[in-house]
Amino acid sequence: MGSYMGGCCSLEPHQPRRVPPPSLGIPNMADRKPSVDPARKGSAFDQPIDLDHVLINELGQFGLFQLRNILLVAIPIIMSAFMSEFVFSAAAIPHRCRIPECGEVEKSTNYDREWLANAIPESDSGFASCERFAPVTGINGTLDYCPPNIFQTNTIECDGFIYTRDNSVVFDFDLGCQEWLRALAGTLSSVGTLLVLPITGYVSDRFGRRMALVISVFNLALFGLIKAFSVNYVMYLAFQVIQTTLGAGTFSSAYIFATEFVGPKYRVITSATCSSMFAVGQVVLGGIAWLVQPWRYMIMTLHIPCFLIVSYYWLLSESVRWLLSKRKFDEARRVLEKAAHVNKREISQKSMNALMRPPAAVATAEPVEADPGVLRTIIKSPILLRRVCTTPIWWITTTFVYYGLSINSASLSDTIYLNYILTCAIEIPGFYTAVLILDRVGRKPTLSGGFFFSALCNIAFAFIPNDMTVLRLIIFLLGKFGISMVFTSLYLFTSELYPTQYRHSLLAFSSMIGRIGSITAPLTPALMEYWHGIPTVMFGAMGFLSGVLILTQPETLGTKMPNTLAEAEALGTPQSKIQSN
């Protein structure tokens, strides 16, 4: 998303041990190792009172307080999609060689001329974009009359270009026939979403979720606005990567706010709602780009309102999970009491005490074994090792296909704005379809089905004739629908596979490796020079691979979030199931 999601959907790595997981409403049990009584053979999943218990039984899993938080953070989630404006500000523009012998001295001269066939060879799509017939020395024509005898039969490369439009950096910075350089804007944007992960993670865990959100949106607005005044392409690219490096944490910070305080019953629908808001942001982006077509004014229109989010520092309450993890119990108590008041519920003194006074470690005669660390734990656990090798491939495929389809939508037809809006809008039913089936058929059928369905559509698209415009659009949108089902489900399924102690770092690891997909996706349109179907066939092949790999992992529907390594390894066994009261 957003990405994801911007942003779409990144989470922060390099966390200290005593932190809550970043999303999906998971209780923080990372620092408490359960005491083992040899005389008792209870379930590994028996736990004391935690925040999830309080939400389910006392505060309410989804009340007015949670709804208010989601409505507030929906606005920055929408704004996080604005970093994808490079789809329009750096859009490819049809171009041809400038013919100075015929009086063409400006790149904005009329694109169509009656004499073009005399000066430029034809190609499959019309006139050639990057070559022209060599001129005969000493003979010139005019804009109205340029006969064939002033050109030779051999061709040469262009030394200047004429463009059909001026609403892109391609026109301003004269990037004709430099497709890979033009595509670099999207790649650098995705590189920034990778670099932002440790920065946002540090700010979020050191200064709180609220501060991380406000700083991220402010950076998004500030550097986006500066980018609108770029004087050359190097400056544009520099601020593209600076903006995402310092502002792409907007989605993950807002996502955490939305999900950390909802009960387990509403995790899936809250996750889908956040993803849908990112899709709404993309639709808004497409609409504004359509209405405000000069790229500099478009960027200003998108980013100036983002400065209003600074007010969220006073409007939003800090995350309770973060406050508890940092032992800021007085502030946590105030937020819990406020939530109880807004939800018209009461929190018992017993539960409040349990949250404010977490149980001390049980004293034993034997020395306590030191935490072996995440790397050594992975190596010693074959089950965890297989998951760590598998989940990043899902993330690479999801980001590669998701962003690749959005970016390639501009090449479906000449109506690039409508294509982009439709391609983004189809995500919303995809997200909520996942909500409807995740808790009914399970995580594995939803994810593998989404991968396989998207893969079939993408491969089929490559072989549909270009003149079947409506059918091509329908199949393309169905491919995006399938990968959107995967996108909103992947956070949840990946989180449910890992123990609390390592969940944040391993989820962040998968997300970071997954950025390979979003970094390479903007380059795929350039491959259409060799064959128009290369991008979608690549999307299909990756989708089939990930669909098969999903089937190698245990089903997590109806299981409790694993807090320890033993619980994570036990997923798929009867004892991992939540016992009904």
Helix content: 55-70%
Strand order of the largest sheet: 1-6
**Sheet bearing the most strands, described?**
2 strands, antiparallel
Number of helices: 25
Radius of gyration: 27 Å
Descriptive keywords:
4% strand; disordered N terminus; two-stranded antiparallel sheet; 581 residues; mainly alpha; two-stranded antiparallel ribbon
In short:
The protein is mostly helical and 581 residues long.
Present the secondary structure layout.
Layout lengths: L4 H5 L41 H9 L4 H17 L5 H4 L5 E3 L18 H4 L2 E2 L2 E2 L3 E5 L15 E7 L3 E3 L5 H4 L6 H29 L1 H19 L5 H15 L1 H11 L7 H25 L3 H9 L8 H4 L4 H6 L3 H14 L6 H8 L17 H7 L1 H27 L7 H10 L1 H15 L1 H20 L6 H29 L2 H21 L13 H17 L14 H5 L12
Antiparallel strand pairs: 1-6, 2-3, 4-5
Keywords: Membrane, Transmembrane, Transmembrane helix
Organism: Bombyx mori (Silk moth)
Pfam family, one: MFS_1
Protein architecture, described:
With 581 residues, the chain is mainly alpha-helical. It is 57% helix and 4% strand. The strands form 3 sheets. A two-stranded antiparallel ribbon has the order 1-6. Helix 3 (64-80) packs antiparallel against helix 10 (249-259) and helix 10 runs antiparallel to helix 11. The longest helix has 29 residues, at 179-207.
